[in-house]
Write a structure and sequence with these properties.
Blueprint (H helix, E strand, L loop, with lengths): L1 E4 L5 H14 L8 H13 L6 E10 L2 E11 L4 E9 L8 H19 L7 E7 L7 H16 L3 E2 L5 E3 L9 E9 L9 H15 L7 H9 L4
Parallel strand pairs: 4-5
Antiparallel strand pairs: 1-2, 2-3, 3-4, 5-8, 6-8, 7-8
Helix pairs in contact: 5-6
Length: 226
């Protein structure tokens, strides 16, 4: 098995990767496939933002896509952000997710070195909150996802209530739990400086919101730690 960047002209792989994407995330959590492929083409043409590096990585075995990882490194925040990470339903619970996750962390560290930085502060990402689950089975699945990340080095960010804006017309805003994979010796649990950096990464860079945005202001106001 290999884990590599997805190319926009690899039509058969693009189709498989987008199937896993659509299968793994509900409509209210997905941006359009066109937006994703536009970002892939910008990376290939080196025409994306100068202070960010975008990745759409796929885990491959015999020309079959087994998993996807869509993430970016943001130089101003010195932090990575993973909006989408999923394994093919038939290959879950077999260790593949941990291998892809380790590749994400290594790639973010490599991105920081390319920018001449000693190490990224960490990698942040959203997860669905168990307390907002549809039913008991869904709540258990959400807790299992959080447990997976914690076993692989991430910590849940406490004292933060983050709500993300709708991703399109007629879609709801989304309340998420936020996890952080620390890479620069931060204390656990994260303090105010770390949590503020996470908000800047997720909402400022990931969603493109200005600090004056009500979503951004509410998230900062919710931080309840020194």
């Amino acid at each position: 098995m290999e884990i590599d960047e997805l190319g926009s002209t690899q039509t058969h792989l693009v189709k498989q990767a987008l199937w896993i994407y659509a299968e793994s995330f509900p409509a209210e959590e997905r941006i359009s496939a066109e937006e994703l492929l536009r970002a892939v083409r910008q990376r290939e043409q080196d025409s994306g933002p100068a202070d960010a590096t975008f990745h759409f990585m796929v885990a491959l075995e015999d020309e079959s896509v087994l998993g996807i990882a869509i993430f970016s490194y943001y130089k101003p925040a010195r932090m990575g952000f993973i909006p989408y990470f999923a394994v093919h339903p038939r290959r879950r619970s077999g260790g593949l997710g941990a291998r892809i996750y380790a590749q994400i962390i290594a790639t973010v560290a490599a991105d920081a070195r390319l920018y001449g930085e000693p190490a990224p502060l960490g990698v942040s990402f959203e997860v669905e909150r168990p307390d907002l689950a549809r039913d008991a089975a869904d709540a258990q699945l959400r807790r299992r996802r959080i447990g997976f990340y914690q076993r692989n080095g991430a910590v849940e960010v406490p004292h933060l209530a983050l709500v993300a804006p709708p991703l399109g017309p007629n879609l709801p805003e989304m309340a998420y739990a936020i996890l952080l994979h620390p890479l620069a010796g931060w204390a656990s649990p994260p303090g105010r400086a770390a949590i503020t950096a996470v908000v800047a990464t997720v909402l400022g860079h990931g969603y493109g919101l200005a600090p004056e945005s009500p979503y951004y202001r509410r998230a900062l106001a919710s931080i309840d730690v020194d």
